[in-house]
Automatic annotation (TrEMBL):
GO terms for molecular function: phosphatidylinositol transfer activity. This is CRAL-TRIO domain. Residues 79-243 form the CRAL-TRIO domain. PANTHER family: GH16843P, SEC14P-LIKE PHOSPHATIDYLINOSITOL TRANSFER FAMILY PROTEIN. CDD domains: SEC14 (cd00170).
Length: 292
């Protein structure tokens, strides 16, 4: 009986969520073109979840994101536009997944090599879009690993840049982040964090985890998400981290060709998978020359 009750509650929740999605569709009205393709049921469900299933708040969030996408044009950014940003390997998609099969982005703020905020954001958005397009069909979220090796106040990103990063991630890619591990940040980072954390909504804040090598509990938490054999030694794992910019660039261009082919096919069939184009890259493919 208890099993039946739990099962029924789960079904009821699913039905209620579907009803909310339909209500949001009605509230948004008729959409066309890229806006219609973007607003899949899965996409609307993520926006609703991010706004605690409040129709009005979710509607505004979707409309704001559609406006942002129409001006920022994330799906039109190409690697050649942002390749300079990636020369040092300050941010890239890893060649391994977490234990749930989710895409992993590695960020190394100590490797910052540019000062132009606009192109830095385009680079980050490109990587987010790329990570999403390569998620397995049963996953909607990615994981971030942030390595603070070499980080200092001298190469720290301005607060304005950090705030824009948070804005893009939590307001235009809702429920896309599963977890972000900040690995071994220096003590001086705490002052910067005290400012940045006020930009985070409660849900995003809960996804940020600090990991210190000498703190057993934080290390064990991280290992519940990642296999030590895949995890680079910079994050306490056993794999060797080696970023090859030329190889990564080649792989990104390859990915774009595959995505363009899928885009053409899905436009023809009138179907967009999970709200984003799938690049049809096999699970485990080397999409960043990272751990080896």
């Amino acid at each position: 009986m208890m099993f039946w009750r739990r099962h029924s509650n789960k079904e009821n929740d699913s039905v209620q969520q579907d009803e909310k999605v339909n209500e949001l569709k009605v509230a948004l009205g008729t959409l066309s073109g890229s806006s219609e393709q973007y607003c899949t049921d899965a996409c609307l469900r993520r926006h609703l979840e991010a706004r605690n299933w409040d129709i009005d708040k979710a509607k505004k969030m979707v409309e704001d994101t559609l406006e942002w996408r129409s001006t920022f044009k994330p799906d039109e950014i190409r690697w050649s536009d942002v390749a300079t940003e990636g020369e040092t390997g300050k941010a890239y998609r890893a060649n391994f997944h977490d234990r749930h099969g989710r895409t992993v982005l590695i960020l190394r703020p100590g490797m910052q090599n540019t000062t132009g905020v606009e192109n830095q954001m385009r680079h980050l958005v490109y990587l987010i879009e790329n990570a999403i397009s390569n998620l397995p069909d049963d996953q909607e979220q990615m994981a971030w690993l942030i390595d603070f090796t070499g980080w200092s106040l001298n190469n720290n990103v301005p607060v304005k840049t950090a705030r824009e990063t948070v804005n893009i991630l939590q307001n235009h890619y809702p429920e896309r982040l599963a977890v972000a591990f900040l690995y071994n940040p220096p003590r001086i980072f705490e002052a910067f964090w005290m400012i940045v954390k006020y930009f985070l909504d409660p849900k995003t804040f809960q996804k940020v985890k600090f990991v210190y090598p000498k703190n057993k509990d934080s290390v064990e938490l991280m290992r519940t998400y990642f296999d030590e054999e895949n995890l680079p030694n910079e994050f306490g794992g056993r794999a060797k981290l080696q970023y090859d910019h030329e190889e990564f660039s080649r792989l990104m261009v390859q990915d774009e060709v595959k995505a363009d082919r899928v885009r053409g096919s899905e436009k023809k069939n009138g179907h967009i998978n999970n709200g984003y184009l799938k690049a049809e890259v096999a699970q485990g493919s080397v999409l960043a020359p990272a751990a080896s």
